[in-house]
Amino acid sequence: MKKTSVLMAALLFLAMELGFCAPVSKMLKKADERGTPENSVLVYGKISPVSLINFLQMDSHFSSDRQDVDFLSDSVFCLMPVAPGSLYMAGYAHANISKNSYMAGYYLLSGSMWDFRAPSEPGLYYYGSYDFVKSDKEGERIATGKDRKKEELKCLKILQKDLKKTSWNEAIQKRIDELKGE
After folding, report:
1. What distance in Å separates the CA atoms of residue 88 and residue 96, rounded to the nearest whole number?
2. Rounded CA gap, 138 and 11, in Å?
């Protein structure tokens, strides 16, 4: 098991060095280059204990795109801004379930619960909160109702720290205010 972890870490490091995935800070600084709240969708949420996941844009009406999930802290993630209405399917996911077990898989051709279509209107899109250790059903969202609002607020506060100096900051603050007012 230890050899597998070392190999995975080496492969991830190599991918980062070759430019297949960039560190979170570099990617988020470029968020405005990819889109703004007026012309694109910022996808965010929480997936625990997933440590690596990527999505591919699969709708032929949109440009091809690969998104490696940017995990911030506490399993909160953010994608680079995407085109409104575009369809993303999970290509690969890896999760550390416990000290002695993990899951990994390629999902693209079969479709999966990870897949999503971005809303047709620009702005923020809350993907949801998942926890595969706390849930007894694969893919079940752990947060519904009041818990959903609480989980989304946590995600937004973490996201706001990393996107403070971008055009997304105002949209994030507005959504935080909406959730607090509900």
Report:
1. 23
2. 27
Which residue in this structure is represented by tokens 């600084």? 29
3 state DSSP class of 127: strand
Whose tokens are 């923020």? That residue is 124
Taking the CA of residue 157 as centre, how many other CA atoms within 13 Å lie in the half-sphere pointing to its CB? Answer: 10
Give the pTM. 0.76
| Dihedral pair phi/psi, residue 176, rounded to 5° | -60, -45
pLDDT in tens, 65-108: 999 887 888 889 999 999 999 999 888 777 776 666 666 666 66
Q: Copy the structure tokens of residue 129.
A: 């909160």
- Rounded distance, CA 173 to CA 178, Å? 9
Q: What are phi and psi of 121, to 5 degrees?
A: -100, 135
Please give the Cα distance from 126 to 147 (Å, whole number).
Answer: 14
- Tokens linked to 24: 């979170």
